[in-house]
């Protein structure tokens, strides 16, 4: 019986504690500010932590590892001011305005075109050098054949 009564008592105690934490008593003629820990973090603390950036868009794209290290250091120090402990961060997804994304894509296409043209120029240069070597080789061969014929004489 004591086991069942104990469980019921514990359940009522926890339930009463939860209900008591939801009730607030404000005396007449006074105003009260109710601190909702989770709501406050979501609406006030987090935006004040993450709305500050010292990096531009290009740096975010090209130097992700460095940005992640700097952001981790900054955020660890910043959240400590609010009594929070930050264990780790990870930059998993960045999204930008469509104009920026289009500009980046156009730049990448242009860079690929430049690389393609550079490859074609190098290929053409190698082909030209191969032709020069071939002509020089043919000339050397003809010269050696001519010398051999001269030495052999009319035989």
TrEMBL record:
Q: Indicate where this protein resides in the cell.
A: Mitochondrion inner membrane
Give the record's keywords alphabetically.
Answer: Membrane, Mitochondrion, Mitochondrion inner membrane
Check the record and name the SUPFAM superfamilies matching this protein.
Answer: Band 7/SPFH domain
Gene Ontology CC: one annotated term: mitochondrial inner membrane
Domain annotation Band: ranges: 43-116
Keyword Magnesium in record: no
- One Pfam family name is Band_7
Q: Which InterPro entries match?
A: Band_7, Band_7/SPFH_dom_sf, Prohibitin
One BP annotation, GO: mitochondrion organization
Asked if Disulfide bond is a keyword of the record, the answer is: no
Family listed: Belongs to the prohibitin family.
The entry's protein name is Prohibitin
